[in-house]
What does this fold into?
Amino acid sequence: MRIQLTEQERAERKLHPETLAIAAEQVRANGYILFEKVLDEDKIKTIRAAFDPIFDEYISRKGYNTGTNRAQMHLPFMQPFIDEDVICNPFAMEVIDEILGKDNRCTYFASDTPMPGSDYQNVHCDLMPLFPELAVPLPPFSLVVNIPLVDVTEENGPLEIWPGGTHQNPDRANHDTLDGSVNPHLHIVRAAEHMYSEKLYMPAGSIVIRDIRMWHRGTPNRSNDRRTNLAMIFNRSWYGGGSYIQIPQETYDALPARARELFRTERIGWPVRMPWE
Ligand SMILES: O=C(O)CCC(=O)C(=O)O
It folds into this structure.
């Protein structure tokens, strides 16, 4: 399910109430929503120009960490990455607030990049069960926001997702199989082979909001260029880590009020941490 913002929504930087209702119900019931091309091209180009050399240095120091020729990398909390259209995008925040409550927090500021030559990941879910002893579906409590820095096509390794209910599977299915292990309660990788999936083709600057529990995998990048998704995690106020993202005091003080709320439990008053530190 994808939404094109109307001219009026773009001008007002606010979703039509009906659009907000549809987006929130898609995340709750189907696991995700995609807003096409929200950030403008110049902004994305600027972010990409800053990202690429940092990523190259990260790989040369640390190597790949999420499969062959692919890596997760934390982002330094500095411009141009902390543009308000990234960290507290008004359209994304309306949907996130509706689902997680207005006191939600952002606790993860990072990226995923399959490089040329990357392979399929195992289908996985990013979380362990919240209550392993309970076999009941729980409402959303943690959402991932992805923003691609390039147009995502069949060639360059789109994120593949299993919408339609995997995020609410009660069989202790929210178990990370990225390491090749098999979930003893439900063989996610085998089950997924016979289930409906979608590859998220989208223009650079789109915004995906997905339930962190929804099954997904990275696919092979067969192009000659990297495919980066920015990745942030927003949680209900009571869930998840915190005090990881290092934010200098003057950076924090200069953030828009909404962003100050979102990052309120992080390491404020600490120097920017580069991903290899
Ligand atoms: O953006 C991608 O390719 C997916 C990455 C991913 O799901 C992971 O590494 O856990």
Observations:
- The pocket of 2-oxoglutaric acid is lined by residues 66, 72, 112, 114, 121, 159, 178, 216, 218, 229 (CB under 6 Å).
- The chain has one domain: 2-268.
- The first strand starts at residue 2 and ends at 3.
